Structure prediction request, 257 residues.
Amino acid sequence: MIELQVVQPFPWQQLLQYLSFRLVPEFESVENNHYQRVYRDSLVRVSYSEPRGLLQISTDLPDDQLDDAVARVSRIFRPQLCTKAIYQRLLSHLPMLEKTVGFRPLGCWDPFELCLRTIIGQQVTVAAANTIMRRLIERCGQLTPEAVIAADLTDMGMPGARVATLVTLATAIAVGDLDLSMPWPELRDALIKLRGIGPWTCGYLAIRLGMDEDAFPETDVGLIRAAKAESAKTLLASAEQWRPYRAYAAVALWSLE
Prediction:
């Protein structure tokens, strides 16, 4: 077992709850107070020992793949992140976040999977996005650019334009025109040029992929509702006082939904 020291506070239950609605079906699951990932025909299981303050990773991966697995787990949960100063600032404006102190923008196991899930999630509920994501996996098998390009994505239950965006993204990566490991400012500029990827998609990816602490997708309906704002415009105005940590405010508010 590999153990990672965690900087407190670390609201494990809330993080798992939030993540449970945004998993990649067939490959990820949350059950019995742990996160589980199928990876390279092996299983990676992540649990948290609250008394010891340790994130615990167990897996049957070979030794030469352990560092990669640990890096991916760390990218999701960010155990070394100190949020104390961030929440001291946010709580003065958003006292309802007292229930979520320590909540942080979660990363992802795989950037391409996250991009697919985010595109699918445009203008639909989280539940609907999960259903369509499952259909995509059924069609593709593995979520690789090549598999997406080769799959029959008709009758997926989403607009044809959105299907075209999935293929456009996959093609750009497959031919080498897009590299998801690029620094976020460069990647954002490249993504926004792809047909079907707009401000909301980039705003959400800025939080979970770009780790931009001040990213803020103010047009998100769930965010508007959670903040009890009248509109995206009024939410954006209110959020000025949350700078430079608007991304933390966004994910914490989402977690209260």
Q: What stands out?
A: DSSP finds twelve helices and five strands in the chain. Residues 126-140 form the longest helix (15 residues).
